[in-house]
């Protein structure tokens, strides 16, 4: 096995036993990046020098017995998490040259544990999208079939992990952006409970929905990353003071007696038959392992798209008001009045999808419309949460598909945003309700494209999700397939 092929846990074992150094591992990942990046376009910035000096430091720490829990492990970071001294573009022209003076809390967490940051990865502009095609710096490609989308918005995170450029990444999930690309690229991705992980230093898209989470190749790695990034942060007012369990402890304890709910509304029209068959085989697997399968209903699922596409743009229109050319980021220098400068900066700096969201959001929040749109959508949000709470009276965890189909061709949906918005139907509810969710690889379509299985649980019950996910991973025994690179 080449060093870049190791999982996080395997790499840590080899470094602890002295078989491998962090510098060797980091160089192996950097060489892999050099090899595949021209075809895949996962990275916006590769910080070679920074990574190598962090790796040297990690080796020294290990030598004196001061290795942190991620000591020497190279990772990629979605380009909307602040990294001190390293460009953070949010996939947007408007921040093309922005270098933050501070680290996001999660980045700080990783550095404190000795993690090595290889660079920043591609994403839909300001995390708005489901394919990563709205990224201003190139479109990441699905490593299983290069003409296909990687999913989004954390497409670069998923591609970097799936294609062995690094063993783990941090992404963000506002409406599915960790789980969906994880599913389309065949990796594990977890969206934690809202408030579990600090949002400090995560560029805000829709503040009441955004959460940071890990993408890795195994559930075990995902649990380890969760241990490192979870916890209260006084710099994030929505962070919750809640004990953080050791997420790695119960991974292998099995699912005997676990009540697994199957929400009828997630298996309706529009669900591809191959995707359905893969998820059904996941359900059978859990049953064989001793779980009890129960039918549940989430009747307001059908309103999730409408509610989300009001709430998210409304919050985004307000969050993105700060990019006006005055404080940081791109500024149009041709304008001859202040107002023109604002107008020109935003017209040139933002892409079409971001502008569309700002328009929808500003309209929805404008005087006279607030009650009809934002308030109504917030009421629907409560009904969606109520549905989940009712369903968790009869089950411990929910199992379902993540997306109605496997990955599609790049460019296929770029003219009309509606089919893309609709394809988020199975992931948005968890964000509206603040619940944790995960994507675990479930199988492959006949065309060779990966399909994930979604697990969702009650607030702060990531442990149950990880346990069920780990069981699926062990028992499904997926065939070894070759990447298209
Ligand atoms: N696809 C959704 C959107 O475009 C979700 C994005 C996300 O989770 N960041 O808003």
Spatial order of strands in the largest sheet: 1-3-2-4-6-5-10-11-9-7-8
Look at the structure and give the CATH class of the domain at 3-256 and 446-452.
Alpha Beta
> Largest sheet, if any?
11 strands, mixed
CATH architecture of the domain at 3-256 and 446-452: Alpha-Beta Complex
User: What portion of the residues fall into strands of 2 or more residues?
Assistant: 5-15%
What percent of residues adopt helix (DSSP H or I)?
Answer: 25-40%
Content-based structural category? alpha/beta
Envelope shape: globular
Low-confidence stretches: none
Bound molecules: glutamine
H/E element order: HHEHEHEHEHEEHEHEHHHHEHHEEH
Name given to the CATH homologous superfamily of the domain at 3-256 and 446-452: Amidase signature (AS) domain
Which fold name fills CATH's third level, the topology of the domain at 3-256 and 446-452? Amidase signature (AS) enzymes
> How many β-strands, per DSSP?
11
Number of helices: 15
Mean pLDDT: 97
Terminal CA distance: 17 Å
Outline the structure in words.
This protein is of the alpha/beta class and 485 residues long. The protein has a domain at 3-256 and 446-452: Alpha-Beta Complex (Amidase signature (AS) enzymes). The chain is 38% helix and 13% strand. The chain has an eleven-stranded mixed beta sheet, with helices on both faces. Helix 5 (155-162) runs parallel beside helix 6 and helix 7 packs antiparallel against helix 15. The radius of gyration is 21 Å and the shape is globular. The chain starts with 7 loop residues before the first helix and ends in a 9-residue tail after the last helix. The mean pLDDT is 97. Bound molecules: glutamine (GLN). Glutamine is lined by residues 127-130, 153, 173-177, 205, 312, 424.
